[in-house]
Amino acid sequence: MEMKRKKLKNKVCWYMGVVVVGVLQQSCVDKFVPESLDAFDKDAGFTTTLYRPVLGRNNLISENFSPGNSTQPLTFSITRVVRKDGSEAPELTEEFPVRVWHTPYLGTETSLEEIEAKRGYENRSLLQVREHSGELILWANALSSFVKCAPDSGYVFDIRVTNSGGWKDYTGLRLIPYRERDYEPTNMDETTGIVTEDYVHPTSVSRMYKVGESSLFGLMDPEDINVFFRRDVENGSKEYTLTFRFMTKDYQPISPRKFSGTDWGHLVHGFDMEMTDEYVRYKVAYPIPLNDIPTEYTNKDGDKAHVVFRYDRLMNGTQRVASSMSFDFSIYKEGHWEIIFVFSGGDPEFRDNY
């Protein structure tokens, strides 16, 4: 009996020894197995190497890097920015207070206070690359008064892209901005800054007739209407405004009330509307539109404000005609702006049966 107990004890000890040795061996193997590394595709690269954003507005340049088969996220960093002649470019590398959204703008905000509560200032360099997307940002603070732009040769910059599997420096990327345009559409030459004509035309005109005309020859088209942008530099109020005016071909005011079918309460994302027989005015936040997202106040792409002025009238006794004029625009510089529609090709007919 004693002998059996000894044999059993020896077997247990043997099995335990085998288990211990196995665990130790596995630990030793695990210790020397290399950690799994990310893949870095040597063919990954920037699809855009020359960047030509417009100064004076926030520029986000997307879809400019192809990661290939690289493991993501990748990490991007700007390692060098110099002028084309090789000299330093502190205007793009030093930090400035730029306005950023802390909470997303939706287009549903009900007051200027609500809008301003969503954004604030942070110190950032004017040229940045987003850490994990490679998207480039040139902030609106960059202006032609101190940032080089076309026809100058601009800047050269390098970006390093890394993950745990490798890294690569992409050198010789080019930045040649165009000078700022305070508003669009505009006839300003993007290189020289010279304005060839100080007016533009509406985006569309539908079934608007000239005074006394009821035939097809009396229909207006966009070229019959000149649209002027004017900034009131003498108004020192910090509550910025946007004003719409309408004028005859002789520059006499047309009451906004004539456009009686207009949804004035939702024309622009503005507040405290004031209407007189000479203008309609809103308190607004700039730029317009505030962000590049589609809202009820923008075109379908979200990059322009979209306004429509409407009215209807009777023609030929009983025919109800719906007339309208639309205009898509952007304003990038803060201030007190006026948009003036001058019916230079003939005054619009608002009366019934004429």
TrEMBL record:
Recorded superkingdom: Bacteria
Pfam family, one: DUF5007
Alphabetical list of InterPro entries matching this protein: DUF5007
Name used for this protein in its record: DUF5007 domain-containing protein
Organism: Paraprevotella clara YIT 11840
Lineage: Bacteria, Pseudomonadati, Bacteroidota, Bacteroidia, Bacteroidales
